[in-house]
């Protein structure tokens, strides 16, 4: 989601629920004057066109929407597409848009027409509202139309063609060979494009992989590769090969050997000294291994001199076809010192039996110079799996689990995102028939914008009143404190990562930030301040969810640091922050580092709210690898979990100054949109986690990641902001507000799996616009909303088709699935924590 200055709507920050909460508060606290009611509404005209028109089902239409207002206006513009039966098929929302009088506002977006879309004429509606869905100014029921052509036959099998050219025909040492590879697929598909260069002896000397490339059917795509001929390269004819692989490297639908050729000559120069020699040992365990299990490949490298390299580990079958690859770029080797790299290959259960070999290549960073290639370093046998449909084994769990925070329940507990109005703690939650344990709410708006949580509804004690109201209904409050990004400071025009770090280092902003957090702690603490008694009961405060990932990525890779780091490594003390330099007396003794910032937050809790359970956040992408989105079978979930957990430990779950408390809990989020939104509105083909745990991403790998975070950080975990969608109720038809996901289903059915990894509870809630909610936000007609079922293989690694054919009786936008399963959970007895 694009940043909007002065708005709360940022990538994973304030979600629509918070906006709705504020609107409800304003409605309940501000009386609209008669003069305001009499204000003349602006005159609005709007239209929309689609290109191409007609469009085939399964392809993409570009929608261009135009809006003109008679007056200057800040508006929310809602563009919706309805099918021939009158059901909404897509919606696109643009909030806080600045319309100038008589100027035309234009916005273009792509609509991915589902392959199952009914043929016929689809109408485009445009609604214009005041910002934040306030007043409706105009609704155009016939802004435009687009005709969808139906599909009459299943798509043909995908075939590929590839070509390549190499310039110049003859290259000298130090000269760049420019390779232009071109690939065309018969139908749209997503593949890895692999371009490789081979020497006259058949040794691979260069490789460049273009990962996760979506190729539209019939369109030629170019993949440029530049290779600098290293001094001392063998003279003779070099060839270029082009390979296409599935996104998990398990299938190789196309390989073009010698797609291009060129010659290399020394041109009469003396070859320079040979590059450093390398001693490489690779082993694969276990051997033999049954298909469906995880193979561990350990590669040990010793360099003859200090070197900076890219290490490439590949597995080949008996016919010489590559079936697996993983590589590490920008690796520093010290002369004579062994360094071991471990990767894992989750072998598909239906993989062919046979003998496989491991080859290792050593290149310059970024696949630059070729240094070494060693084939057949080890071999192993894959045995045929007699039951490839059997589920894979559970991931290993921590040997021991850390203690649970004493203030939290002894059973696996549940909560939902909930505002202070009828869609939250005052209405939907008590009316749901569920004995929820938690109600969570963002505290955001910025510390210096005049829109922060302490201004909502004109009530400076908003957080205290929310906590009291939730407690009266039996819910423990969970406040997600998300203030840094939404504040005003240096870097406001920067990308989100850089802006967060710039804000963290601004003394004036951080002074207001710490003062705002102190205000919150006083309200929820057990003391009396300014004549007001604090809340004083157990409450969870979840601190800055995305900032932790940006901080760790910055110190792991200083190119993401924007000048705010003092070194590189997995250490929060290497990132600068304004703490003591902010001038706030309560944090005067803490260093001006990110670690010091975390210690300061804990110290403020110790001073004013020792009753608060403090939670730090660990994202799935904090280690530079996305555990919830990566399709590679070689991702080391355990190792990445240890890296993430160690950063959390050094940030305050373990390492703190003498006399200080630690963080009590780890929070993790699994997605800021439903998987169906990412796939059908965003075009991400591998958005669904595989509920059968056979392909990636999947639940088992994420569980292994979480278990290693818990054991390394030494704290239990809570999963937060879980997308609401399901694949059960007919309501879920992958349209705006009704996108499917499978994590509610899986988590509710596998609490034992989660608990054995140290997870103690689940907090459900949508993250951003368009995603599914558990209340009736969409106000569908008819309501309950029961369109035709959607049959799909999404999230089914076995290829099995599932249909959401259960009729909804609730008006909830998820069809009531969350409330039904939660009712059953509490009615049948809660699951005790290990």
Write the layout of secondary structure elements.
Blueprint: H1 16-29, H2 34-37, E1 44-51, E2 55-56, E3 60-69, E4 73-82, E5 88-99, E6 104-112, E7 120-130, E8 136-149, E9 160-167, E10 170-172, E11 176-185, E12 189-198, E13 204-215, E14 220-228, E15 236-245, E16 254-265, E17 278-285, E18 289-290, E19 294-303, E20 307-316, E21 322-333, E22 339-346, E23 354-363, E24 370-383, E25 413-417, H3 428-431, E26 438-443, H4 462-472, E27 476-481, H5 496-504, H6 507-524, E28 528-529, E29 532-533, E30 539-543, H7 545-556, H8 594-608, E31 612-617, H9 637-653, E32 665-669, H10 675-681, H11 699-713, E33 717-722, H12 743-749, H13 751-756, E34 759-764, E35 791-792, E36 802-803, H14 817-827
Parallel strand pairs: 2-8, 10-16, 18-24, 25-26, 25-34, 26-27, 27-30, 30-31, 31-32, 32-33, 33-34
Antiparallel strand pairs: 1-3, 3-6, 4-5, 4-7, 7-8, 9-11, 11-14, 12-13, 12-15, 15-16, 17-19, 19-22, 20-21, 20-23, 23-24, 28-29, 35-36
Helix pairs in contact: 6-8, 9-11
């Amino acid at each position: 989601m694009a940043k909007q200055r002065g708005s709360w709507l940022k990538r994973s920050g304030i979600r629509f629920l918070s906006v709705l909460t504020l609107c409800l508060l304003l409605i309940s606290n501000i009386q609209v004057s008669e003069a305001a009611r009499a204000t003349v509404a602006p005159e609005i005209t709007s239209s929309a066109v689609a290109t191409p028109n007609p469009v085939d089902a399964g392809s993409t239409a570009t929608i261009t929407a135009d809006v003109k207002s008679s007056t200057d206006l800040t508006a929310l513009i809602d563009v919706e597409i309805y099918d021939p039966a009158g059901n909404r098929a897509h919606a696109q929302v643009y909030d806080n848009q600045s319309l100038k009088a008589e100027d035309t506002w234009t916005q273009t977006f792509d609509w991915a027409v589902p392959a199952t879309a009914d043929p016929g004429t689809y109408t485009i509606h445009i609604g214009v509202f005041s910002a934040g869905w306030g007043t409706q100014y105009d609704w155009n029921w016939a802004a435009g139309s687009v005709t969808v052509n139906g599909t009459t036959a299943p798509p043909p099998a995908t075939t590929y063609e590839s070509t390549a050219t190499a310039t110049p025909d003859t290259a000298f040492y130090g000269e760049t060979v420019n390779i232009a590879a071109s690939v065309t697929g018969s139908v749209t598909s997503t593949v890895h494009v692999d371009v490789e260069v081979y020497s006259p002896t058949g040794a691979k000397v260069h490789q460049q992989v273009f990962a996760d490339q979506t190729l539209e059917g019939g369109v030629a795509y170019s993949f440029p590769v530049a290779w600098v001929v290293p001094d001392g390269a063998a003279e003779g004819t070099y060839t270029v090969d082009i390979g296409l692989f599935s996104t998990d490297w398990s299938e190789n639908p196309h390989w073009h050997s010698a797609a291009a050729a060129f010659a290399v000559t020394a041109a009469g120069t003396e070859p320079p000294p040979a590059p450093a020699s390398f001693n490489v040992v690779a082993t694969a365990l276990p051997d033999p291994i049954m298909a469906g299990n995880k193979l561990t490949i350990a590669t040990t490298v010793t360099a003859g001199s200090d070197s900076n390299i890219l290490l490439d580990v590949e597995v080949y079958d008996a016919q010489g076809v590559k079936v697996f690859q993983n590589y590490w770029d920008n690796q520093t080797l010290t002369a004579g010192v062994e360094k071991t790299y471990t990767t894992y290959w989750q072998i598909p259960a239906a993989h062919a039996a046979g003998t496989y070999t491991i080859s290792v290549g050593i290149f310059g960073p970024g696949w630059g110079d070729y240094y070494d290639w060693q084939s057949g370093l080890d071999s192993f046998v894959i045995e045929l799996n007699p039951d490839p449909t059997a589920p894979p084994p559970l991931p290993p769990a921590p040997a021991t689990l850390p203690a649970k925070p004493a203030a939290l329940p002894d059973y696996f507990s549940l909560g939902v995102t909930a505002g202070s109005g009828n869609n939250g703690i005052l209405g939907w939650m008590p009316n749901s028939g569920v004995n929820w344990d938690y109600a969570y709410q963002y505290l955001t708006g910025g510390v210096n914008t005049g829109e922060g949580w302490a201004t909502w509804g004109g009530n400076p004690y908003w957080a205290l009143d929310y906590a009291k109201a939730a407690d009266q209904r039996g819910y423990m409050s969970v406040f997600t404190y998300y203030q840094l990004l939404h504040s005003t400071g240096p870097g406001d025009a920067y990308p989100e990562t850089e802006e967060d770090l710039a804000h963290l280092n601004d003394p004036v902003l951080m002074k207001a930030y710490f003062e705002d957090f102190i205000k919150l702690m006083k309200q929820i603490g057990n003391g009396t301040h300014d004549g007001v008694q604090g809340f004083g009961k157990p409450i969870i405060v979840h601190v800055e969810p995305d900032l932790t990932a940006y901080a760790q990525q910055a110190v792991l890779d200083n190119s993401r640091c924007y000048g705010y780091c003092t070194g590189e490594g997995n250490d929060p003390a290497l990132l600068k922050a304004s703490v003591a330099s902010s001038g706030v007396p309560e944090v005067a003794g803490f260093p001006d580092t990110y670690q010091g910032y975390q210690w300061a937050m804990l110290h403020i809790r110790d001073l004013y709210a020792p009753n608060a359970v403090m939670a730090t956040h660990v994202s799935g992408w904090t280690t530079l690898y996305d555990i919830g989105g990566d399709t590679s079978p070689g991702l080391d979930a355990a190792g990445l979990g240890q890296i993430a957990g160690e950063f959390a430990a050094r940030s305050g779950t373990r390492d703190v100054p003498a006399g200080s408390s630690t963080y009590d809990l780890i929070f993790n989020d699994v997605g800021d949109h439903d998987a169906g939104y990412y796939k059908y509105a965003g075009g991400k083909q591998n958005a669904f986690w595989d509920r059968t745990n056979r392909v990636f991403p999947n639940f088992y790998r994420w569980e292994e990641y979480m278990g290693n975070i818990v054991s390394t950080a030494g704290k239990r975990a809570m999963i937060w902001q879980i997308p609401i969608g399901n694949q059960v109720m007919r309501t879920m038809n992958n349209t705006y507000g009704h996108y499917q996901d499978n994590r509610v289903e899986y988590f509710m059915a596998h609490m034992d799996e989660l608990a054995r990894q140290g997870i103690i509870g689940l907090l459900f809630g949508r993250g951003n616009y368009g995603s599914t909610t558990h209340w009736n936000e969409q106000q569908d007609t008819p309501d309950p909303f029961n369109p035709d079922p959607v049959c799909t293989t999404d999230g089914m690694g076995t290829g099995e088709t599932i249909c959401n054919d259960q009729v909804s009786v609730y008006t909830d936008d998820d069809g009531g699935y969350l409330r039904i399963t939660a009712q059953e959970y509490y009615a049948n007895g809660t699951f005790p924590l290990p």
